Amino acid sequence: MIERTKILMIEDNKLMAKNLRDVLETVQGGMDIAWEPDPAQGLRYLAAKPVDIVLLDLILPDSQGLETFTKISLLSPSVPIIVMTGVDDETVAVSAVRSGAQDYIVKGQVDGQVLVKSIRYAIERKRIEEDLRKARSDLEYKVQERTEELIDINENLQKEIDERRKAEEALKVAYEQLKLAQSQLVYSEKMETVGRLASGVAHEVKNPLAILLQCVEYLQRNLSKDNEKITRTLEFMSEAVMRADSIIKGMLDFSSVSQMELSDQGPVELIENALLFIKHEIDLHHINLEKAYAPDLPAIKVDKNRIEHVFLNILMNAIDAMGDNGKITIRIKSRVLDNVGDGAGRRGADTFKLGDRVVIFEFEDNGPGIPESILEKVFDPFFTTKHDKGGTGLGLSIIKNIMEMHHGRITLKNREQGGVIATLTFRA
Ligand SMILES: Nc1ncnc2c1ncn2[C@@H]1O[C@H](COP(=O)(O)OP(=O)(O)OP(=O)(O)O)[C@@H](O)[C@H]1O
Ligand SMILES: [Mg+2]
Protein backbone atom coordinates (compact mmCIF):
# COMPACT_ATOMS: atom_id res chain seq x y z
CA MET A 1 0.00 0.00 0.00
CA ILE A 2 1.33 3.39 -0.96
CA GLU A 3 1.83 5.64 2.07
CA ARG A 4 -0.22 8.82 2.01
CA THR A 5 1.80 12.00 2.08
CA LYS A 6 1.19 13.91 5.31
CA ILE A 7 1.39 17.66 4.81
CA LEU A 8 1.28 20.28 7.55
CA MET A 9 0.30 23.68 6.32
CA ILE A 10 0.95 26.67 8.62
CA GLU A 11 -0.98 29.56 7.14
CA ASP A 12 -2.95 32.28 8.92
CA ASN A 13 -5.15 33.13 5.97
CA LYS A 14 -7.97 30.65 6.09
CA LEU A 15 -9.01 31.36 2.52
CA MET A 16 -5.50 30.94 1.21
CA ALA A 17 -5.22 27.68 3.11
CA LYS A 18 -8.43 26.42 1.65
CA ASN A 19 -7.32 27.39 -1.86
CA LEU A 20 -4.06 25.57 -1.48
CA ARG A 21 -5.75 22.49 -0.12
CA ASP A 22 -8.14 22.52 -3.06
CA VAL A 23 -5.37 22.93 -5.56
CA LEU A 24 -3.44 20.06 -4.07
CA GLU A 25 -6.34 17.71 -3.76
CA THR A 26 -7.54 18.28 -7.30
CA VAL A 27 -4.14 17.65 -8.74
CA GLN A 28 -3.13 14.77 -6.61
CA GLY A 29 -4.92 12.40 -4.31
CA GLY A 30 -3.24 10.50 -1.53
CA MET A 31 -2.39 13.53 0.53
CA ASP A 32 -3.42 14.25 4.09
CA ILE A 33 -3.36 17.98 4.60
CA ALA A 34 -3.44 19.32 8.15
CA TRP A 35 -3.88 23.07 8.58
CA GLU A 36 -2.73 25.18 11.52
CA PRO A 37 -3.32 28.92 11.47
CA ASP A 38 -0.30 30.07 13.51
CA PRO A 39 3.27 28.97 14.25
CA ALA A 40 2.66 28.06 17.90
CA GLN A 41 -0.09 25.63 16.98
CA GLY A 42 1.93 24.38 14.04
CA LEU A 43 4.84 23.55 16.33
CA ARG A 44 2.53 21.78 18.76
CA TYR A 45 1.12 19.72 15.91
CA LEU A 46 4.62 18.84 14.73
CA ALA A 47 5.65 17.75 18.19
CA ALA A 48 2.65 15.44 18.43
CA LYS A 49 2.34 13.93 14.96
CA PRO A 50 4.69 12.79 12.24
CA VAL A 51 4.50 14.71 8.97
CA ASP A 52 6.27 14.31 5.64
CA ILE A 53 6.54 17.99 4.78
CA VAL A 54 5.70 21.43 6.11
CA LEU A 55 4.34 24.26 4.02
CA LEU A 56 5.17 27.39 5.96
CA ASP A 57 3.81 30.86 5.38
CA LEU A 58 6.74 33.20 5.97
CA ILE A 59 4.56 36.26 6.47
CA LEU A 60 2.57 34.95 9.36
CA PRO A 61 1.54 37.83 11.66
CA ASP A 62 3.53 36.91 14.75
CA SER A 63 6.45 35.25 12.99
CA GLN A 64 9.66 37.21 12.81
CA GLY A 65 10.71 36.31 9.29
CA LEU A 66 12.88 33.27 9.56
CA GLU A 67 12.33 32.67 13.24
CA THR A 68 9.50 30.19 12.80
CA PHE A 69 11.37 28.42 10.06
CA THR A 70 14.35 28.01 12.40
CA LYS A 71 12.17 26.70 15.22
CA ILE A 72 10.62 24.09 12.96
CA SER A 73 13.92 22.91 11.55
CA LEU A 74 15.28 22.58 15.07
CA LEU A 75 12.21 20.67 16.27
CA SER A 76 12.07 18.33 13.27
CA PRO A 77 15.36 18.50 11.44
CA SER A 78 14.49 15.65 9.10
CA VAL A 79 11.22 17.15 7.86
CA PRO A 80 11.52 19.15 4.64
CA ILE A 81 10.06 22.63 4.62
CA ILE A 82 8.70 24.59 1.68
CA VAL A 83 8.25 28.24 2.49
CA MET A 84 5.45 30.31 1.02
CA THR A 85 5.85 33.98 0.48
CA GLY A 86 4.18 37.03 -0.93
CA VAL A 87 5.20 38.51 -4.25
CA ASP A 88 7.38 41.21 -2.72
CA ASP A 89 9.00 39.01 -0.14
CA GLU A 90 11.17 36.73 -2.17
CA THR A 91 14.38 37.78 -0.40
CA VAL A 92 13.22 36.25 2.91
CA ALA A 93 12.27 33.11 1.03
CA VAL A 94 15.70 32.95 -0.56
CA SER A 95 17.43 33.20 2.78
CA ALA A 96 15.16 30.47 4.13
CA VAL A 97 16.30 28.27 1.25
CA ARG A 98 19.90 29.16 2.09
CA SER A 99 19.26 28.07 5.67
CA GLY A 100 17.92 24.74 4.56
CA ALA A 101 14.39 25.14 3.26
CA GLN A 102 13.85 22.78 0.36
CA ASP A 103 12.01 25.26 -1.84
CA TYR A 104 9.78 28.30 -1.86
CA ILE A 105 6.62 29.21 -3.63
CA VAL A 106 5.08 32.58 -4.27
CA LYS A 107 1.51 32.68 -3.08
CA GLY A 108 -1.05 33.53 -5.72
CA GLN A 109 1.14 32.15 -8.47
CA VAL A 110 0.76 28.59 -7.41
CA ASP A 111 0.21 26.12 -10.14
CA GLY A 112 -1.09 22.82 -8.73
CA GLN A 113 1.15 20.63 -10.82
CA VAL A 114 4.20 22.66 -9.95
CA LEU A 115 3.38 22.60 -6.25
CA VAL A 116 2.91 18.84 -6.16
CA LYS A 117 6.14 18.35 -8.05
CA SER A 118 7.89 20.70 -5.65
CA ILE A 119 6.51 18.74 -2.68
CA ARG A 120 7.60 15.40 -4.10
CA TYR A 121 11.06 16.70 -4.95
CA ALA A 122 11.41 18.36 -1.56
CA ILE A 123 10.58 15.13 0.25
CA GLU A 124 12.90 13.13 -1.96
CA ARG A 125 15.77 15.64 -1.66
CA LYS A 126 15.40 15.81 2.08
CA ARG A 127 15.42 12.00 2.26
CA ILE A 128 18.64 11.86 0.25
CA GLU A 129 20.11 14.64 2.34
CA GLU A 130 19.18 12.78 5.48
CA ASP A 131 20.70 9.52 4.18
CA LEU A 132 23.83 11.41 3.29
CA ARG A 133 23.96 13.12 6.66
CA LYS A 134 23.47 9.79 8.40
CA ALA A 135 26.15 8.11 6.28
CA ARG A 136 28.50 10.97 7.01
CA SER A 137 27.88 10.91 10.73
CA ASP A 138 28.28 7.09 10.70
CA LEU A 139 31.56 7.59 8.93
CA GLU A 140 32.62 10.31 11.32
CA TYR A 141 31.70 8.08 14.21
CA LYS A 142 33.74 5.23 12.76
CA VAL A 143 36.68 7.51 12.07
CA GLN A 144 36.41 8.86 15.59
CA GLU A 145 36.26 5.34 17.00
CA ARG A 146 39.24 4.20 14.94
CA THR A 147 41.18 7.34 15.87
CA GLU A 148 40.58 6.65 19.54
CA GLU A 149 41.68 3.05 19.03
CA LEU A 150 44.83 4.28 17.30
CA ILE A 151 45.51 6.78 20.08
CA ASP A 152 45.13 3.95 22.59
CA ILE A 153 47.46 1.72 20.59
CA ASN A 154 49.92 4.57 20.25
CA GLU A 155 49.85 5.30 23.98
CA ASN A 156 50.40 1.64 24.81
CA LEU A 157 53.23 1.48 22.33
CA GLN A 158 54.80 4.60 23.81
CA LYS A 159 54.46 3.10 27.29
CA GLU A 160 56.08 -0.10 26.09
CA ILE A 161 58.90 1.86 24.48
CA ASP A 162 59.42 3.85 27.68
CA GLU A 163 59.45 0.72 29.78
CA ARG A 164 61.88 -0.96 27.43
CA ARG A 165 64.11 2.07 27.45
CA LYS A 166 64.08 2.13 31.24
CA ALA A 167 64.81 -1.60 31.39
CA GLU A 168 67.61 -1.12 28.88
CA GLU A 169 69.11 1.69 30.94
CA ALA A 170 68.87 -0.36 34.12
CA LEU A 171 70.54 -3.22 32.28
CA LYS A 172 73.28 -0.93 31.06
CA VAL A 173 73.91 0.35 34.59
CA ALA A 174 73.92 -3.20 35.95
CA TYR A 175 76.29 -4.24 33.19
CA GLU A 176 78.65 -1.36 33.93
CA GLN A 177 78.59 -2.22 37.63
CA LEU A 178 79.26 -5.86 36.83
CA LYS A 179 82.12 -4.92 34.53
CA LEU A 180 83.61 -2.68 37.21
CA ALA A 181 83.21 -5.33 39.90
CA GLN A 182 84.76 -7.89 37.59
CA SER A 183 87.73 -5.72 36.71
CA GLN A 184 88.25 -4.92 40.39
CA LEU A 185 88.14 -8.61 41.15
CA VAL A 186 90.57 -9.40 38.36
CA TYR A 187 92.81 -6.58 39.54
CA SER A 188 92.89 -7.63 43.18
CA GLU A 189 93.42 -11.24 42.17
CA LYS A 190 96.29 -10.19 39.96
CA MET A 191 97.79 -8.11 42.75
CA GLU A 192 97.50 -10.97 45.18
CA THR A 193 99.15 -13.42 42.80
CA VAL A 194 101.88 -10.98 41.87
CA GLY A 195 102.45 -10.17 45.53
CA ARG A 196 102.73 -13.82 46.49
CA LEU A 197 104.96 -14.65 43.55
CA ALA A 198 107.04 -11.55 44.03
CA SER A 199 108.20 -12.15 47.56
CA GLY A 200 108.96 -15.83 46.83
CA VAL A 201 110.76 -15.31 43.54
CA ALA A 202 112.50 -12.14 44.63
CA HIS A 203 114.19 -13.80 47.58
CA GLU A 204 115.23 -16.80 45.46
CA VAL A 205 116.59 -14.65 42.66
CA LYS A 206 118.18 -11.87 44.69
CA ASN A 207 121.11 -13.94 45.95
CA PRO A 208 122.13 -15.56 42.62
CA LEU A 209 121.91 -12.07 41.09
CA ALA A 210 124.23 -10.65 43.73
CA ILE A 211 126.69 -13.48 43.05
CA LEU A 212 126.46 -12.90 39.30
CA LEU A 213 127.16 -9.20 39.77
CA GLN A 214 130.18 -9.93 41.95
CA CYS A 215 131.48 -12.36 39.32
CA VAL A 216 131.04 -9.80 36.54
CA GLU A 217 132.88 -7.22 38.63
CA TYR A 218 135.65 -9.72 39.31
CA LEU A 219 136.03 -10.38 35.60
CA GLN A 220 135.97 -6.66 34.84
CA ARG A 221 138.83 -6.18 37.24
CA ASN A 222 140.94 -9.14 36.09
CA LEU A 223 140.37 -9.62 32.38
CA SER A 224 142.45 -7.71 29.91
CA LYS A 225 141.19 -4.13 29.55
CA ASP A 226 142.66 -3.98 26.04
CA ASN A 227 140.09 -6.27 24.56
CA GLU A 228 137.27 -3.91 23.78
CA LYS A 229 134.84 -6.69 22.91
CA ILE A 230 135.29 -8.31 26.30
CA THR A 231 134.93 -4.97 28.07
CA ARG A 232 131.66 -4.22 26.18
CA THR A 233 130.33 -7.72 26.84
CA LEU A 234 131.03 -7.39 30.55
CA GLU A 235 129.29 -3.99 30.56
CA PHE A 236 126.23 -5.54 28.89
CA MET A 237 126.24 -8.32 31.47
CA SER A 238 126.53 -5.86 34.31
CA GLU A 239 123.67 -3.71 32.94
CA ALA A 240 121.46 -6.77 32.47
CA VAL A 241 122.09 -7.96 36.01
CA MET A 242 121.38 -4.48 37.41
CA ARG A 243 118.13 -4.34 35.48
CA ALA A 244 117.10 -7.75 36.79
CA ASP A 245 117.99 -6.52 40.26
CA SER A 246 115.87 -3.39 39.90
CA ILE A 247 112.92 -5.53 38.85
CA ILE A 248 113.41 -7.72 41.87
CA LYS A 249 113.68 -4.69 44.11
CA GLY A 250 110.45 -3.36 42.63
CA MET A 251 108.74 -6.66 43.24
CA LEU A 252 109.86 -6.66 46.84
CA ASP A 253 108.57 -3.11 47.29
CA PHE A 254 105.36 -4.18 45.65
CA SER A 255 104.83 -7.14 47.91
CA SER A 256 105.71 -4.81 50.79
CA VAL A 257 107.65 -7.32 52.74
CA SER A 258 109.37 -4.72 54.81
CA GLN A 259 107.49 -3.22 57.75
CA MET A 260 105.79 0.15 57.46
CA GLU A 261 107.44 2.82 59.55
CA LEU A 262 104.85 5.52 60.16
CA SER A 263 105.70 8.96 61.49
CA ASP A 264 104.23 12.47 61.30
CA GLN A 265 105.66 14.31 58.31
CA GLY A 266 105.19 17.82 57.03
CA PRO A 267 103.94 17.63 53.41
CA VAL A 268 106.32 20.36 52.18
CA GLU A 269 109.39 18.75 53.81
CA LEU A 270 108.43 15.42 52.28
CA ILE A 271 108.18 16.74 48.75
CA GLU A 272 111.25 18.97 49.02
CA ASN A 273 113.29 16.02 50.23
CA ALA A 274 112.16 13.88 47.31
CA LEU A 275 113.01 16.72 44.90
CA LEU A 276 116.63 16.66 46.09
CA PHE A 277 116.95 13.13 44.72
CA ILE A 278 115.56 14.06 41.34
CA LYS A 279 117.22 17.48 40.94
CA HIS A 280 119.73 16.03 38.54
CA GLU A 281 117.02 14.69 36.17
CA ILE A 282 115.10 17.96 36.35
CA ASP A 283 118.17 19.99 35.40
CA LEU A 284 119.27 17.50 32.77
CA HIS A 285 115.93 17.72 30.95
CA HIS A 286 115.47 21.46 31.53
CA ILE A 287 112.21 20.92 33.32
CA ASN A 288 110.40 24.06 34.44
CA LEU A 289 109.25 23.23 37.95
CA GLU A 290 106.50 25.25 39.55
CA LYS A 291 105.34 24.90 43.10
CA ALA A 292 102.14 26.03 44.78
CA TYR A 293 102.06 24.98 48.41
CA ALA A 294 99.17 26.11 50.60
CA PRO A 295 100.26 27.61 53.94
CA ASP A 296 99.76 25.83 57.29
CA LEU A 297 99.43 22.32 55.93
CA PRO A 298 98.73 19.68 58.57
CA ALA A 299 101.18 16.81 59.05
CA ILE A 300 100.42 13.36 57.62
CA LYS A 301 101.31 10.00 59.10
CA VAL A 302 103.34 8.16 56.49
CA ASP A 303 106.27 5.87 55.85
CA LYS A 304 108.72 8.56 54.71
CA ASN A 305 110.84 6.34 52.42
CA ARG A 306 107.89 4.77 50.71
CA ILE A 307 106.13 8.10 50.09
CA GLU A 308 109.31 9.63 48.69
CA HIS A 309 109.50 6.61 46.42
CA VAL A 310 105.93 7.40 45.31
CA PHE A 311 106.77 11.06 44.55
CA LEU A 312 109.91 10.12 42.64
CA ASN A 313 108.09 7.59 40.48
CA ILE A 314 105.34 10.02 39.59
CA LEU A 315 107.89 12.74 38.77
CA MET A 316 109.94 10.30 36.69
CA ASN A 317 106.85 9.23 34.78
CA ALA A 318 106.13 12.89 34.01
CA ILE A 319 109.70 13.56 32.87
CA ASP A 320 109.71 10.38 30.74
CA ALA A 321 106.47 11.48 29.09
CA MET A 322 107.51 15.10 28.45
CA GLY A 323 111.13 14.73 27.37
CA ASP A 324 113.09 17.97 27.46
CA ASN A 325 111.73 21.44 28.33
CA GLY A 326 108.54 20.21 29.89
CA LYS A 327 106.75 21.85 32.78
CA ILE A 328 105.74 20.23 36.05
CA THR A 329 103.52 21.95 38.59
CA ILE A 330 103.38 20.57 42.11
CA ARG A 331 100.48 21.71 44.29
CA ILE A 332 99.80 20.83 47.90
CA LYS A 333 96.56 21.79 49.58
CA SER A 334 94.37 20.65 52.42
CA ARG A 335 90.63 20.63 52.88
CA VAL A 336 87.70 18.97 54.56
CA LEU A 337 85.79 16.55 52.33
CA ASP A 338 82.25 17.78 52.00
CA ASN A 339 80.77 15.90 49.07
CA VAL A 340 80.53 12.31 47.97
CA GLY A 341 82.01 13.26 44.60
CA ASP A 342 85.37 13.48 46.39
CA GLY A 343 85.25 9.71 46.73
CA ALA A 344 84.18 10.10 50.32
CA GLY A 345 81.32 7.92 51.44
CA ARG A 346 79.39 7.00 54.55
CA ARG A 347 80.26 3.33 54.51
CA GLY A 348 83.00 1.89 56.66
CA ALA A 349 84.70 0.43 53.60
CA ASP A 350 85.13 3.79 51.88
CA THR A 351 88.65 5.20 51.86
CA PHE A 352 87.50 8.58 53.13
CA LYS A 353 84.46 9.80 54.97
CA LEU A 354 82.63 13.09 54.72
CA GLY A 355 84.18 15.50 57.19
CA ASP A 356 87.68 13.99 56.89
CA ARG A 357 90.52 16.50 56.63
CA VAL A 358 92.85 15.50 53.81
CA VAL A 359 96.12 16.64 52.30
CA ILE A 360 96.20 16.58 48.51
CA PHE A 361 99.32 16.48 46.33
CA GLU A 362 98.88 17.27 42.65
CA PHE A 363 101.57 16.64 40.03
CA GLU A 364 100.67 18.21 36.73
CA ASP A 365 102.72 17.73 33.58
CA ASN A 366 102.30 19.08 30.05
CA GLY A 367 103.27 15.90 28.22
CA PRO A 368 101.08 14.02 25.73
CA GLY A 369 98.77 12.51 28.37
CA ILE A 370 97.75 8.86 28.62
CA PRO A 371 95.75 7.42 25.69
CA GLU A 372 92.18 6.55 26.84
CA SER A 373 92.68 2.99 25.62
CA ILE A 374 95.38 2.28 28.21
CA LEU A 375 94.19 4.51 31.04
CA GLU A 376 92.68 1.53 32.83
CA LYS A 377 95.82 -0.55 32.53
CA VAL A 378 98.53 1.78 33.79
CA PHE A 379 98.18 0.53 37.36
CA ASP A 380 98.58 -3.10 36.26
CA PRO A 381 101.88 -4.66 37.33
CA PHE A 382 104.28 -4.91 34.37
CA PHE A 383 102.17 -2.69 32.13
CA THR A 384 104.54 -0.29 30.38
CA THR A 385 104.83 1.60 27.12
CA LYS A 386 108.56 2.05 27.72
CA HIS A 387 109.92 -1.43 27.02
CA ASP A 388 112.61 0.03 24.82
CA LYS A 389 113.71 2.48 27.54
CA GLY A 390 113.90 -0.16 30.23
CA GLY A 391 110.54 0.50 31.92
CA THR A 392 109.45 -2.31 34.20
CA GLY A 393 105.80 -1.29 34.41
CA LEU A 394 105.93 -1.74 38.16
CA GLY A 395 106.07 1.97 39.07
CA LEU A 396 102.36 2.76 39.30
CA SER A 397 101.31 -0.60 40.66
CA ILE A 398 103.78 -0.17 43.53
CA ILE A 399 102.54 3.39 44.07
CA LYS A 400 98.97 2.17 44.24
CA ASN A 401 99.96 -0.50 46.72
CA ILE A 402 101.81 2.00 48.89
CA MET A 403 98.85 4.41 48.80
CA GLU A 404 96.55 1.60 49.87
CA MET A 405 98.86 0.75 52.73
CA HIS A 406 98.47 4.39 53.84
CA HIS A 407 94.69 4.30 53.37
CA GLY A 408 95.18 7.01 50.78
CA ARG A 409 94.22 7.26 47.14
CA ILE A 410 95.86 7.95 43.80
CA THR A 411 94.11 9.02 40.62
CA LEU A 412 95.53 9.83 37.19
CA LYS A 413 93.57 12.15 34.94
CA ASN A 414 94.29 13.55 31.51
CA ARG A 415 94.19 17.35 31.29
CA GLU A 416 92.02 18.82 28.57
CA GLN A 417 94.96 20.72 27.11
CA GLY A 418 97.17 17.61 27.21
CA GLY A 419 99.29 16.18 29.97
CA VAL A 420 98.42 14.31 33.14
CA ILE A 421 97.44 15.28 36.65
CA ALA A 422 98.38 12.70 39.26
CA THR A 423 96.55 13.32 42.53
CA LEU A 424 97.53 11.76 45.84
CA THR A 425 95.18 12.11 48.78
CA PHE A 426 96.12 11.35 52.40
CA ARG A 427 94.03 11.65 55.52
CA ALA A 428 95.61 14.33 57.75
N1 LIG B 1 102.63 11.34 33.35
C1 LIG B 1 102.44 10.42 32.40
N2 LIG B 1 102.23 10.79 31.11
C2 LIG B 1 102.01 9.86 30.15
N3 LIG B 1 101.98 8.52 30.38
C3 LIG B 1 102.16 8.09 31.63
C4 LIG B 1 102.40 9.00 32.71
N4 LIG B 1 102.52 8.27 33.85
C5 LIG B 1 102.39 6.97 33.49
N5 LIG B 1 102.20 6.83 32.17
C6 LIG B 1 101.97 5.59 31.40
O1 LIG B 1 101.75 4.55 32.32
C7 LIG B 1 102.61 3.47 32.06
C8 LIG B 1 102.88 2.73 33.34
O2 LIG B 1 103.62 3.52 34.23
P1 LIG B 1 104.50 2.82 35.34
O3 LIG B 1 105.14 3.87 36.15
O4 LIG B 1 103.65 1.82 36.04
O5 LIG B 1 105.54 2.02 34.51
P2 LIG B 1 106.75 2.62 33.62
O6 LIG B 1 106.98 4.04 33.95
O7 LIG B 1 106.45 2.29 32.21
O8 LIG B 1 107.94 1.74 34.08
P3 LIG B 1 108.92 2.10 35.31
O9 LIG B 1 108.05 2.74 36.34
O10 LIG B 1 109.52 0.83 35.72
O11 LIG B 1 109.90 3.06 34.75
C9 LIG B 1 103.81 4.11 31.43
O12 LIG B 1 104.53 3.19 30.64
C10 LIG B 1 103.17 5.22 30.60
O13 LIG B 1 102.71 4.71 29.37
MG1 LIG C 1 107.18 4.67 36.02
Provide structural commentary:
There is one protein chain. The chain is built from ten helices and 14 strands. By secondary structure, the protein is an alpha/beta fold. It folds into three domains: 106 residues, Rossmann fold; 107 residues, Helix Hairpins, CATH 1.10.287; 169 residues, Heat Shock Protein 90 (2-Layer Sandwich). The strands form four sheets. It has a five-stranded parallel β-sheet, with helices on both faces. A five-stranded mixed β-sheet has the order 7-9-12-14-13, covered by helices on one side. Helix 6 packs parallel to helix 10. The chain starts with a strand and ends with a strand. The mean pLDDT is 87. The site of adenosine-5'-triphosphate has 20 residues, from helix 8 and helix 10.
